[in-house]
Each structure stands twice: as structure tokens, then as C-alpha cells.
Design brief:
This protein is an all-alpha fold. It is built from three helices and no strands.
């Protein structure tokens, strides 16, 4: 008999719906890079141009 046949179905269902390890870290790094890029763009492009004028 294999290990899969010996285990109950509740053992197999325990991992369903979980996220892979490191997913939160990857999303956090992506968010941090996005925020840093936005701040660099804001302070080095938009602030020096000044307010909108008509």
C-alpha cells in the first residue's frame, strides 16, 4: 500500500486554500518597490515642475 492510501482524506484537505511560503514576502517587496518608485517620480518630476497653472 502507498502512503496516500494509508492517510485519511482529512490530511489531504488540510493544505487546500493555503498560500505558498514566501508569498507575503514577495508581495511586500513588490509593494515596497512600487511605493519607492512612486515617491521618486513624485519628488524628482512633479514637485520641481510646480503647481498647475492656466
Amino acid at each position: 500500500m502507498s502512503d496516500e492510501e494509508l492517510r485519511g482524506s482529512s490530511d489531504l484537505d488540510a493544505d487546500i486554500g493555503g498560500h505558498p511560503k514566501g508569498t507575503l514576502a514577495i508581495v511586500g517587496v513588490y509593494g515596497l518597490l512600487f511605493a519607492l518608485g512612486w515617491l521618486i517620480l513624485y519628488f524628482l518630476v512633479f514637485v520641481p515642475r510646480g503647481a498647475l497653472t492656466q
